[in-house]
Write a structure and sequence with these properties.
Blueprint: H1 3-22, H2 36-52, H3 63-77, H4 81-105, E1 109-113, H5 120-123, E2 131-136, H6 138-147, E3 156-161, H7 167-177, E4 184-187, H8 197-208, E5 213-221, H9 223-231, H10 248-253, E6 257-264, H11 265-271, H12 283-288, H13 291-298, E7 301-308
Parallel strand pairs: 1-2, 1-4, 2-3, 4-5
Antiparallel strand pairs: 5-7, 6-7
Helix pairs in contact: 1-9, 2-3, 2-4, 7-8
Length: 309
């Protein structure tokens, strides 16, 4: 290899390593998250804390009940809790707006895959005629049914217990969800990062096969961020995070979806007055980073709206 090419390769590797080392994420193991179900309790606790905050960006009065003592303990002990809480709050606002816009366009069905302990059917202003379907593991569905017994959703709500990683169960659940839908939108909030890319591809194809589904809210994160988080020890024993597609727009385009309206959480947080709470040690470093590195941090994670190509 000519020396100039070798130097270029070494420089690219050096920059990639620098980005990973400077990623402002936790450096220790989680406080005992056993599986994906525990992450639902943990995230619900952050929504409950936002609800109690002065100047809260949303109200989720049921989140605390759903999180319970276990969720609050996880949220309290999690290394980097301030950054994770920020991410949860900003993405909640971003997704709420996507859904409000879709419903205003005439969507009649919301399909929340891997719904966790989401409470949007209870807390958002929704048309009573809207159909909302949640799909998640039996353990999560049972917990939710128990802790929300007696509560009345603001739209027509149904829950389906299914393992989305099982092909037949996933396809049957999708068919059941949209059986009466004319215009449906899918939501996957913090779900795809736990699936191998080949399983994400299957899910993308199966969603596309349902003609009534016209759009889909998906999350994305930069590969360097995923690698950095894992390298720094943020590992959930039975819920490992995976690398997403290097070019998500191209990935979804190959499966019949068009990538639109990307919203980066760092940027959106600034717009709503909730900037990233960078760790103190990172702030002086961030100010000195070159422009490309600054831009990489601003666009490292977010959500986008997929529509049929």
């Amino acid at each position: 290899m000519p020396s100039s090419q070798g130097q270029g390769l070494r420089e690219r590797r050096r920059r990639a390593l620098l980005r990973e080392r400077l990623t402002p994420y936790p450096t220790h193991m989680d406080p005992g998250i056993a599986d994906v179900s525990d992450t639902a309790l943990w995230i619900a606790a952050y929504r409950a804390r936002e609800t109690e905050r002065a100047g809260a960006l949303f109200q989720d009065p049921l989140a605390g009940r759903l999180a319970g003592d276990r969720g609050r303990e996880l949220a309290r002990k999690m290394t980097g809790a301030e950054q994770f809480e920020w991410m949860t709050v900003v993405r909640t606002v971003v997704i709420d707006r996507y859904l409000q816009e879709a419903i205003a366009r005439g969507v009649d069905t919301v399909l929340n895959l891997g719904a966790g302990l989401d409470t949007r059917p209870y807390r958002m202003t929704l048309p009573a005629s809207l159909s909302w379907v949640e799909v998640d593991m039996p353990k999560i569905v049972a917990l939710k049914e128990d802790r929300l017994a007696g509560e009345t959703p603001r739209c027509r709500l149904a829950r389906i217990a299914a393992d989305l990683s099982v092909d037949d169960a996933r396809r049957a659940a999708l068919a059941e969800c949209v059986a009466r839908a004319r215009r449906a939108i899918v939501l996957t909030e913090g779900v795809l990062t736990y699936l191998p890319l080949e399983d994400v591809a299957k899910l993308v194809d199966d969603v596309h096969a349902q003609a009534a589904i016209e759009s889909w809210i998906v999350d994305f994160s930069a590969p360097f961020l995923n690698r950095a988080v894992r390298a720094r020890g943020v590992k959930f024993k039975n819920a490992p995070t995976r690398d997403g597609a290097r070019d998500p727009a191209a990935f979804y385009a190959a499966h019949g979806w068009r990538w639109t309206e990307p919203r980066h959480l760092v940027v959106e947080g600034e717009k709503i007055g909730r900037p990233v709470p960078w760790p103190i040690w990172f702030r002086p470093i961030q100010a000195l980073l070159p422009r490309r590195a600054q831009e990489a941090l601003r666009t490292m994670l977010g959500y986008a709206l997929l529509v049929r190509a």
